[in-house]
Amino acid sequence: xxPLSGSSFLxxxxxxxxxxGAWPRLWRRILPQSLAARTTxxxxxxLGIIQIIGLTIHALDRFDFDQRMIYERARSKxxxxxxxxxxTAPSDRDRELAALHLPESVHITLxxxxxxxxxxxxxxxxxxxxxxxxxxWNGGGGGHMSDDMGQVPFGHGGPHGPRGPFGPDSxxxxxxxxxxxxxxxxxxxxxxxxxxxxxxxxxxxxxxxxFLLPDERRWVTIHYILPRPSPFRSxxxxxxxxxxxxAGGILILWGVRRLIAPVSTLGAAAEELGRNxxxxxxxxxxxxxxxxAAHAFNTMAHRIRRYLTDRTLxxxxxxxxxxxxxxxxxxxxxxxxxDEMRAKMLADLDELEAMVAATLAFGxxxxxxEPMGQVNLTALLQTIADEAAETYLDAAQNIAFSSEMPxxxxxxxxxxxKRALNNLVTNAIKYGGGVRIVLLPPxxxxxxxxxxxxxxxxxxxxxPGLPTEDLERMFDPFVRAEQSRNRETxxxxxxLSISRNIIWxxxxxxxxxxxxxHGLRVTVTLVC
Length: 528
Known about the structure:
The chain is α+β, with helices and mostly antiparallel strands. It has helices at about 20-30, 35-85, 95-100, 135-140, 235-275, 290-335, 340-365, 375-390, 415-430, 495-505, and strands at about 105-110, 120-125, 195-200, 205-210, 220-225, 375, 400-405, 410, 435-440, 445, 455-460, 510-515, 520-525. The strands form three sheets. Strands 7, 9, 10, 11, 12 and 13 form a six-stranded mixed sheet that branches. It catalyses: ATP + protein L-histidine = ADP + protein N-phospho-L-histidine.
């Protein structure tokens, strides 16, 4: 009988699959395999990008604010240092300057003249003749006065506006200077105001400002270094950032697990349907998309069960109906006078009856409802080997079973599993003259979850083996190899089909492979 093929001359040949390049292989290794991990990675990556953008905007805003605060504080300190010196008597100023507690970034000297490269920031008449009113200090009187003594430390740049370490030419931009802009500084009396203020050109963070004392011809020169602005000066900011990131990650993990749970349920239901066609239906609840997918899956499972039932009933009916005419033909063949012709006809009828019996057995296996249970696989294989040795006395010495573990438990249907394995052992004895059954230790499965353990059974013989192109089609119903199988064995070509249906129904797998230099190996994988 010719095997059925999945393609015909009308179908196009399958495209050749090209092996992926180096980058796709590397990307597959780096990228998580599960949908939940990929979704979590995508959402956390998006959250990180949003956090970085928000952090950058916040950092720029805080940077500008911190920079302004640095210049304001520097101006206030320079004012404080100058006031501490100018309020001291001229004879005690050197001692007062030595007693000041200055930070490492500030250095003050009393010199007879300013540094040569300093720029004029404000020029005032030595002593105005009229009494200054409070409003005049802020620009209310005297055309020569600057707004709050200039928008830099005591500075006024003439017709082009203020300039200096706190003017628009500086990184700090223009800042007001006066009691309304910097509380606590207060206006200086007219007698303590500097005669002139000079500044040095800005070089990085270093600044120099010189004040000409009003009551002597000495200059107070202050060298200082501005601290660098930092947007993370507040200690609570990184803590809040980490807390928000951690909370966002936890929320993403929880949400992804809730959203992906229906997909996992659908996958588990599909695996259960592959093992048990009569598995209970999925619950059709949850979001509309999930309920729709569950309904579609349940409908598909119902159609599969109906198809299998119809096929089984058809096979059983055909096999049952053929028994009666076969029996009548046997009776009529007995009246044939030619002995040779009668023997040939009876042999053909016996073969036809064996095929009908196998067909009925095939349908019986598909329709059985044997419950699942724990099976001691080691004891089951030992029983099969012992029964085979009793049945085939001529090959008893070539039947062997070995196991590295005393007891291996699997979840299966005991009677069905025994029949599947017995078919494989019987085939090995018939066509190989003997059989070696090897039970390997259980190991972790290679599935997506990797939580299930699997056990492997090797059934080997020393027969002629099979052509490579026939290894897969041997599982098709009523298919027998031309070279290694013959009609004298009585085989019908349904043993491997029955075994594969049973193994697949238990969630396992079965494969055929040739041994070297000759022989056949059947590899059966079962779920523990």
